[in-house]
């Protein structure tokens, strides 16, 4: 589509210009620019498709048919070879390099991890006096108390709320990321079920999807389950004050909050990993976030007399 909008031929790809477009102009579905890593991966996919075309004899046949009919077979073949050679050169990685900076640390403002009081405040925001408020409170509570992904939350059916793992009351994720099934013990956070129960009771839900939308008017409950987009829209309705700024909370912020709060409470890293459904503990550590900041704060190893700044008239004399 990018080529079409600029009236460019697929035979003349300009990956350097397309790279610059992706880095400087394009916005993803979330309204944010792509990271250099994402751009690099996208360009790699495009190169892969072009390489497949170069290997396809049908491509050569079509190009041959585009050459002048009155040209000799050798000239027509030479034209096709030249086009394919130029195309091969155009997709070489060095024609559109993407510099990727390895990040050791991630700023706090990039990923939210709510404090316990902030999480409690968020759960209280929808209220429980209306059916809509009960539904939204259930969404927030289940995500904070189990750490499930938004797609897994949408897929919950009534029996999934109460299963057992080693005798412990657990949430059943029938098919998580990577087609992985898992059980998440509630532990002392099983009070979240009381909220879900009240929502289902008031909404008349006895089987099927736990979380559902409403018909126009906000009173009658639909029979179909919520979508991932709907979960994001629900959370966007409840921005929370953080450091004097209203911040929107996203589903993965609640997963990060779950991981961080449980880790700080002394829960084993591997247990948190299993509850989140991660294959690698390193991914779980990223969700938990930086924990060694105090150790990285330098002690006073130098001295400077700051009073000299006050007494100085900064005249340069």
What does this structure look like?
The chain has 317 residues and is mostly helical. It folds into 2 domains: 2-95; 109-291, hpI Integrase, Chain A. The chain has 15 helices and 7 strands. The chain has helices spanning 2-5, 15-24, 36-55, 57-66, 73-90, 116-124, 131-146, 150-154, 192-203, 228-236, 251-264, 269-276, 281-288, 293-296, 307-311, and strands spanning 163-165, 168-173, 182-185, 212-214, 221-225, 240-242, 245-247. The longest helix is centred in the first third of the chain and has 20 residues, at 36-55. The model has no long low-confidence stretch (mean pLDDT 88).
Could you give a quick summary of the protein structure above?
With 317 residues, this protein is mostly helical.
Which helices and strands occur, and which strands form pairs?
Elements: H1 2-5, H2 15-24, H3 36-55, H4 57-66, H5 73-90, H6 116-124, H7 131-146, H8 150-154, E1 163-165, E2 168-173, E3 182-185, H9 192-203, E4 212-214, E5 221-225, H10 228-236, E6 240-242, E7 245-247, H11 251-264, H12 269-276, H13 281-288, H14 293-296, H15 307-311
Antiparallel strand pairs: 1-2, 2-3, 4-5, 6-7
């Amino acid at each position: 589509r990018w080529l079409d909008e600029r009236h460019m031929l697929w035979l003349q790809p300009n990956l350097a210009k397309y790279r610059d477009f992706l880095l400087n102009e394009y916005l993803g579905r979330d309204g944010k620019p792509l990271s250099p890593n994402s751009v690099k991966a996208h360009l790699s996919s495009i190169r892969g498709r072009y390489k497949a075309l170069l290997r396809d004899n049908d491509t050569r046949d079509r190009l041959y048919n585009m050459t002048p009919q009155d040209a000799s077979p050798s000239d027509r073949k030479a034209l096709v070879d030249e086009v394919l050679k130029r195309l091969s050169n155009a997709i070489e990685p060095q024609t559109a390099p993407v510099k990727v900076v390895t990040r050791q640390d991630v700023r706090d403002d990039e990923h939210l991890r709510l404090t316990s009081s902030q999480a409690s405040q968020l759960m209280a925001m929808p209220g429980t006096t209306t059916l809509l408020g009960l539904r939204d409170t259930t969404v927030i509570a289940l995500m904070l108390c189990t750490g499930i992904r938004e797609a897994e939350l949408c897929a919950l059916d009534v029996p999934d709320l109460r299963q057992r793992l080693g005798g412990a009351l657990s949430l059943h994720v029938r098919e998580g990321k990577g087609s992985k099934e898992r059980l998440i013990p509630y532990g002392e956070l099983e009070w979240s079920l009381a909220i879900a129960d009240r929502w289902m009771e008031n909404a008349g839900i006895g089987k099927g999807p736990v979380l559902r939308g409403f018909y126009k008017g906000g009173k009658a409950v639909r029979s179909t389950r919520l979508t991932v987009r709907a979960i994001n829209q629900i959370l966007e309705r409840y921005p929370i004050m953080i450091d004097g700024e209203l911040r929107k909370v996203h589903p993965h912020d609640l997963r990060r909050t779950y991981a961080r709060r449980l880790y700080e409470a002394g829960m084993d890293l591997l247990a948190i990993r299993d509850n989140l459904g991660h294959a690698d503990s390193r991914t779980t550590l990223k969700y938990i976030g930086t924990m060694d900041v105090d150790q990285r704060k330098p002690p006073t190893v130098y001295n400077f007399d700051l009073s000299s700044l006050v007494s100085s008239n900064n005249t340069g004399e």
